[in-house]
Amino acid sequence: MSESRRVSLRVMLDRDTFQTLDRATDAANVSRESIAADLIRGALTGSAGQPTPTAPRPTGEALTRAV
């Protein structure tokens, strides 16, 4: 079983990126924090855009279509 830890991360986004993320989260009905966590987890594990087994979420492709 893998160990989980809660961390705090501050990310600066340009206005266009923030607005795109904001529209995607509204369309997918998920929080920005949830998407950010999935993207970070994916970047670290090589599975970006894949839902986690314990908390299914839309994939990156679904979010792109939603925007």
Features:
single chain; 67 residues; 3 helices; globular
Structure notes:
The protein has one domain. The chain has three helices and no strands. It has 67 residues and is mainly alpha-helical. Helix 1 packs across helix 3 (60-66).
Percent of residues in helices: 40-55%
Strand content: under 5%
| Structural classification | mainly alpha
Helical segment tally?
3
C-alpha end-to-end distance? 35 Å
Along the chain, the helix and strand elements come as HHH
- How many β-strands, per DSSP? 0
The number of domains:
1
Poorly predicted ranges: none
Q: What characterizes the major β-sheet?
A: none
pLDDT average, as an integer?
71
Gross morphology is globular
Determine Rg (CA atoms, Å): 12 Å
Fold topology:
Elements: H1 15-28, H2 32-45, H3 60-66
Helix pairs in contact: 1-3
Q: Could you give a quick summary of the protein structure above?
A:
The protein has one domain (15-66). The protein contains three helices and no strands.
